[in-house]
Each structure stands twice: as structure tokens, then as C-alpha cells.
């Protein structure tokens, strides 16, 4: 089936089998291997990307379902000049990753929450539900929580 | 594993969707949020010949109040119920208190309430609320539209009175009056697992006396159920001064209702980490606590209203 997919601002005309998952098309066809596939059950969240601005599990969405949608992956987080996103800087500063497998998913679920809610820094419950969305087996989550709060504060202070 | 090959249809109207589903020669599945379906297709426990993606049917989207009911279209995502103000009155409180127990935000941004009714999992939060509140499931098939009362819609795990050629177009929930207090409590091992047991409660109180009680039990039988015997034990009971909780005195009406729900209403099935005996114990405790919270919610609403009129 022929679809058009806007990924990180670039339009791609693709011919994909309906059975193929968004995650597989991103990784295998578009070579965007920053999106990781862990459990493929929708639980671990390593494959989280933004579809039309909302965080979704790319292992639980068919690529053909995204025809005409805009998808944002971890490769689209940094600025055009390669400048890291506020979240990426905060994850680095707070040591919110160790092996890094879960990091793209955490960055994208946090990016979706930050864009939807500019007041995220002042809503600990919302931050908790973002951190609780994905699985990390290295950090124990606390550095990830700190990094998200830190990036949310930075965003609040620059837009205020 | 990955999903096995299937044909994919993208209807633009309900009529087109029903036509696609009407082909009885092929095993068809409706795809709305797909957060259960696509997982089961990965595991190849579900292998449809045809997937009918209803996400491009505008008439299935949106929810609105119609008379004394809330009509939730088949494409309304779980996340829509997160703000307590999305739905008026105590029903909005109940739905927003419940929705945070359904998976996590990236799943809630895709999964739908109507999809939960279609999937009919015994551990579904929405389905237990539907049964407790006498919701209606609207379906359309080759022979036209039908309205199925949630009370006898569920037949067992993943089995309902919906016919395979019928599409769920909406779920209707009755709005709750201002004398009703609500609560929802879920018990599970981790944030990433289904409910071992969960309880939804709506208590309607007139002049300190319980006039109506609704108790929905999640994962307490082979289907979502309503704890009718426990409800009956509460009608006409004075709510009285509410204990501080969460531990209720054994002779308190809510504790008694919990024991009745656990022994007479529930028919729990053994599961890993939660055998039937454990579930009965959890049901007894949770029903009592949920009723206590619902009574406190009703009282808080009453106080807010009286304060407002003063």
C-alpha cells in the first residue's frame, strides 16, 4: 500500500505492506534506528515517537495508519544546527541514562508532554505519569525525573 | 513475532465500514486504537484476514451530552477523560479518576473507550463501569442499528452479544445526579500490569440515606460484573458519620457490603499471583474503601453546594 509519511519534517513516499509496524518502517526503510524496539508489547516504551504531536508506541501502530500523519522521532529532537534539545542536555547533565537503550523513548514521551503542557515543571503528578510510562533498567528513574523537571523549568523560564 | 499478512480497508463512513465487515467469508477485525488488537496480532493469537481501520470515519469521533446521557463516539480516546471537567457532574469525576488506571499516557492517547467494550476483557475498567451504570452499547450491522444494554452484553472473556458483522458506533453512559458520590480504586502488582481487582462505586444519598448504590467489579469474574447483592444491602442505610478509613470497622455497612460482594457477587478466577481466595479478600477490602470514598465524595459535593447557596 502506498502512503506518505512526514518524518521529522521530511516527506517520504513509501510502499509498505499493511502488516508492517511504524517502528519497523522507521528503522528498516528510513534507517532511523534511534527508535528502539524492546518488548514490542507496548509496555517498555523504548519505541515511543510522536504522531501528530502525541506520544505513541510505534510498535502498536501500523505504518499504514500513519498515512498523511506527521511523525517525530528522536532524530528530529536536536535543532537544525545539531544543537541538542533542552531535554537531551538535561538528560546528559542529570546522568539520566546509562546503557541508553530506553533513552529515545523517554526523550520522546517527555517531549510530547512538554509540548502539550508548558507548565509541566510545576505539576509533579504529570511528570510522574510521564516517567512511569516507560521502563528503564539502569537509572532507577530518579535521574530521569530530575532531567525532565530541569528541561521543563528551562522551557518555562525561556518562554516566560 | 510480527503480525501475519492481512487485507486492510479504510472506510470513510459507517456504511462503508459495515459493508467491509459484512463479508462473512473473511475473519475481520475492527481497528480503532489498536492497543490490544495489534499486540494480539504480534503474538498471532488474533490473525484476521481483514483489518477495518475506522480511524478515518468522522461521524464516529467526539462525545456529547444527549438528554441525560453521555454519548461517547467509537473514536474517543481514553485520554479524553483525563480532565475531570471533560464530562459534567459526578460521572466526569468517576471517569477521570478511573482513566489514570488504564495503562499509561502513550497508550491512552490511542486506545478508545468503545474499543474496550469491543475487546471485552474481564479486567477492563470501562466495562465494569458500563455494567454498573447500565450503559448502552450502540452497534450498526447489515440489519441496521441496535442498542445493547451493557448489563447483558458481556458473555465471557472477549465474548459479547455483538455480532461479528456489527460495528460499535458509540457507548452511552447515564449522567449522574448531584446527590451521587463516586470513586474508583484499583489494585495491581505494578504500574505495567492489569488490575488484579478494581472497584467502581456510585452512591446516591438523599437526606443521609442511601437511595441507590452501584458497584462495578473489575477482574472479579470471567466478565465485568455488578455487585447487586452488595448494592441491595446498602439501600436504605444511613451513611452516618464516616470513619476516618481506610480501614473500616468490621460491622460498618460498607465493610459488610464488601464481604457480600466478595462472597455472593464475585466469581473470581485463579490467576498467577492472585488466586481466587486472594481476590475475594481484595474485593472485600476494596469495595468497602471505594464505598467510603464515594460517600465522602457525595458529602463534599453537598458541602460545596450548601456553601455556594449560603
UniProtKB/TrEMBL annotation, chain A:
PANTHER family named in the record: OXIDOREDUCTASE WITH IRON-SULFUR SUBUNIT
Keyword Transmembrane helix attached: no
Protein name: (2Fe-2S)-binding protein
CDD domains noted in UniProt: fer2
Listed SUPFAM superfamilies: 2Fe-2S ferredoxin-like (SSF54292), CO dehydrogenase ISP C-domain like (SSF47741)
Gene3D superfamilies: 3.10.20.30, [2Fe-2S]-binding domain (1.10.150.120)
Domain 2Fe-2S ferredoxin-type: 1-77
Record's keyword terms, sorted: 2Fe-2S, Iron, Iron-sulfur, Metal-binding, Oxidoreductase
The keyword Transferase is annotated on this UniProt entry: no
Automatic annotation (TrEMBL), chain B:
Domain spans labelled FAD-binding PCMH-type: 1-178
Pfam families, sorted: CO_deh_flav_C, FAD_binding_5
Record keywords, A-Z: FAD, Flavoprotein, Oxidoreductase
Source species, domain of life: Bacteria
InterPro entries per UniProt: CO_DH_flav_C (IPR005107), CO_DH_flav_C_dom_sf (IPR036683), Diverse_Substr_Oxidored (IPR051312), FAD-bd_PCMH (IPR016166), FAD-bd_PCMH-like_sf (IPR036318), FAD-bd_PCMH_sub1 (IPR016167), FAD-bd_PCMH_sub2 (IPR016169), Mopterin_DH_FAD-bd (IPR002346)
Gene3D superfamilies registered for this protein in UniProt: 3.30.465.10, CO dehydrogenase flavoprotein, C-terminal domain, Uridine Diphospho-n-acetylenolpyruvylglucosamine Reductase, domain 2
PANTHER family on file: XANTHINE DEHYDROGENASE SUBUNIT C-RELATED
Protein name: FAD binding domain-containing protein
